[in-house]
Amino acid sequence: MRFSDFESMIRRLSQEVPASFFEGVAEVAVSPRTVPHPTRPEIFTLGECVPIPAGESAASHEGQSRIVLYHGSFLALSRIQEGFDWREEAWETLTHELRHHLEWRARAPDLENFDWAVEQNFARQDGEPFDPAFYLEGLPLAPDQYRVDEDVFLDRLVDEVPGGVEIEWAGLPYRVQIPREATLPCFVELSGIANPPAGELVLVLRRKPAVLDLFRSAKVFAAEVRVQPSR
Questions:
Q1: Could you give the CA distance from residue 70 to residue 88 in angstroms, rounded to a whole number?
Q2: Longest Cα separation, the chain
Q3: Among residues 46, 89, 91, 171, which one has the fewest Cβ atoms lying within 10 Å of its Cβ?
Q4: Mean local confidence (pLDDT), 209-230
Q5: Which of 140, 230, 137, 228 is nearest to 190 (CA)?
Q6: What does the pLDDT look like over 144-161, one tens digit per residue?
Q7: What is the distance between the alpha carbons of residues 68 and 31, in angstroms, rounded to a whole number?
């Protein structure tokens, strides 16, 4: 999509959002820049909410920000992602950055915590060190279920590693056999699930947090297990 067409689409999408959501937004700008992730290939920053610093005599700027969408990043992603939907991605980016703006004005850190969880999940997927409790900052789906991007995490508190765990997904029961060599915390990617989520379904076994956990880093066990239907 050409820059001018993208810019026109962003203007149209902005008109579909209630005006009250734009309170304090100085402008929605489109930039030609491509903003790659500093360390992860094929990841691009599609948009940002940029707070406007309030000068000594700029009281009117207090609580204001600019929302910027990067056409170059959209273009780069469209070239490597099959079936890339420009409108859907633009709408998701615009509303995501608007939420950043609203939470920043309200001094609410929820979305920043979610973005941090997404970064931690990238690290998990790439086999890098990560905070084993990151998924708790994801979107709650049900009791003890959290979603981070397309991945869903089933949270279980245990005293020790069990031999097996009974779970339920999409209304169906399953038995998960835990590897004998597993240690806590334990991330088990589940396969063989009917109607799986768009991403991974991960069973997490962990102990109840203790004060000492703040002063030590946890070694995370990870494995993939094929589940068995439980009758």
A1: 15
A2: 70
A3: 171
A4: 73
A5: 228
A6: 999 998 899 999 999 999
A7: 7
